[in-house]
Amino acid sequence: MGNWKSFHFVFLSMLSVLIGTFLTGCNKGPEKAQFKALSSVEGLKKHSLEFKKRVEKVCDGVYVAIGYGLANSIMIEGDDGVIIVDTLESVETARAVRREFEKITKKPVAAVIYTHYHPDHVFGASVFADRPDIPVYAHASTSALIDRSVSVLRPVITRRSMRMFGCFLPDDAIVNAGIGMRLAIDKNSTIGFVRPNHTFSDTLSDTVAGIRITLVHAPGETPDQLFVWLPDKKTILAGDNIYKTFPNLYTIRGTAYRDVKKWVASLDKMRAFHPEFLVPSHTGPIRGADEIYRVLTDYRDAIEYIHEQTVRGMNMGMTPDELVEYVKLPPRLAKSPYLQEYYGTVAWSVRSLFDGYLGWFDGNPTNIFPLSPIEKARHMADLAGGIDALMKKAEDAAEKGDFQWVLNLTDYLLCLSPGNKEAKSLRVKALTELGKRSANPNARHYYLTCAAELGQGLVIWEPGKELGRPKPEMVHSLPMDRFFDAMVVNLDPVKSADVNITVGFIFPDTGEHYSVTVRQGVCEVRPEAALKPDITVKIKSSVWKEMLAKLRNPIVTIATKCDIRGGKLSFLKFMALFDPVYDKPAELQSLLGKSNL
Ligand SMILES: [Zn+2]
Q1: How does strand 211-217 pair with strand 226-230?
Q2: What CA–CA distances, in Å, run from 9 to 59, 150, 346, 574?
Q3: CA 402, CA 485: separation in Å to the nearest integer?
Q4: What's the pLDDT at 570?
Q5: How far is the CA of 204 from the centre of ligand 1 (A)?
Q6: 480 has a pLDDT exceeding 70
């Protein structure tokens, strides 16, 4: 054993010497190879050419409509029908594309394919899948991902999306959206999602209208992402795993962690097919096997590089703020026209990777229990010599063009005094300047929309101002569980603090039962008949769903469409416990500051 131990020690020492030498030998590292991406506002303006409105013929029988909505819609012409891949963000944009496609061929739609669940790919579907017998292909997880995005997280994701896509900005404030000219959604838009009826897990091969298709699950920008391989045309329809800008490894509208190693593997799957034509669902098609292979390789290398160098930095003990300074693309990749930061950015990707692996704690003990916003603001004001001195510092920073610092300082100022007009107008100026200078449309729109919210009182999320109206069929197809999920996250902890009540729901048309118990600030929902309900409500499931989706007036619906035992008034009081709130509570606004975000 003694011999073994000493061998073990010697071996380890040798190994560490070897690794040490190896590392020293390679220690040019990313530090020296760092290179900033070349994105600029001028470059962003040129990038608009990418979205010139057109229907482009890619190869025999494959056409892509670009510039109609945020995404592309692709038509594959077969013997006696066409396949539509991705359907845009609304019925209105999809209709415009369908009219253009029909100028090429009047053959009927034989199938619809969703590359993934994002609204800009699925919400115009009813225009193409206009008969119930039309197959709609998607990955097995697509439906559930849509259901989640339109239920519990809808308020926050919508609000942040509206800012990120600049939905409330005037036309002249927008250059383009990086992956399209604009998200074409407004309050008159109709949402026409059709639920997939042909789903698969890994791959699915089929022949539709004489066209051979293979769908390949390719998790990346979303976990349900797929690409379409057309073997007879040597063509890949790539979905959103590649487009002509740096990939959105994280989106500032808010997303769960996007597994970037799977994204790389999905790009490698595409490379292995050696396609001669590649049609992404945003930006123009790419032609030529060599060119496609080169672009796909650069794209996967960029993601791989960001992943590896972020993890390397994390293992050195770097915090997200430090990693952002440390990880930059090497020159070969930073120069690629496919990797300019017009949609995703390296900095956001690095932060997302840290969070995906290690969660919110950056490792710095300062941040185990950090000061509350108000305490920190008070200390900062003290440090500056009082609120007036802090204000003066913010004005000086604006004078010098240090607008990021103005945002930091006005965070403190507005936290201490939410109505401070000077601080507000200084902040509006900083947001506007940062917006105008930003070459990244997502950041640009977010800054400019927040400037309008703070400066002009723009309200982007309140009842009746929601963008896009869902078709009733879409609302009916959403599972009942999701409606209760969305309802209970509105439970008011103050109003319900002393409430103990159980309501039994009976949906006679579907035979579903739900038991909803409010127990002093907590709501428990069970998909079963209530044992001893205080109130029992019998209602048609479609009516209940329409009411919760705000397609029906709740008071009228409860008064006229519900069969209630236990008192209508009591039930109205129960429902009032779940009234949605659209802003921070007043007591927190004075504590944290209102809307200075
Ligand atoms: Zn998309």
Answers
A1: antiparallel
A2: 63, 58, 41, 70
A3: 44
A4: 95
A5: 22
A6: yes
Would you call 280 helix, strand, or coil by DSSP?
Answer: strand
User: Which residue type, as a one-letter code, is found at position 176?
Assistant: N
CA 368, 370, 372, 375 torsion-angle sign: positive
Query: So what's the pLDDT on residue 31?
Result: 43
* Residue 580 burial class via C-beta count within 10 angstroms: exposed 0-12, middle 13-18, buried 19 and up: middle
Ligand 1 midpoint to CA 360 (Å): 27
Q: Per DSSP, what are the bridge partners of residue 73? A: 65
- Cα torsion 531, 533, 538, 539: sign: negative
CA of 164 relative to ligand 1 center, distance in Å: 14
pLDDT band at 463 (very low <50, low <70, confident <90, very high): low
In the chain the first and final C-alpha atoms are separated, in Å, by 63
Distance 240 CA to ligand 1 centre (A): 6
How many Å lie between the centroid of ligand 1 and the Cα of residue 244?
A: 12
- The secondary structure of 152-202, three-state, reads CCHHHHHHHHHHHHCCCCCHHHCCCCCCCCCCCCCCCCEECCCCCCEEECC
Neighbours of ion ligand 1 (CB under 5 A): 71, 118, 120, 240
From ligand 1's centre to the CA of 179, what distance in Å?
A: 8
Please give the distance, rounded to the nearest whole angstrom, from the Cα atom of residue 70 to the centre of ligand 1: 7
Rounded mean pLDDT of 247-257? Answer: 93
58 vs 206, 239, 278, 288, 528, CA distance in Å? 22, 15, 9, 11, 53
What pTM was computed for the model? 0.89
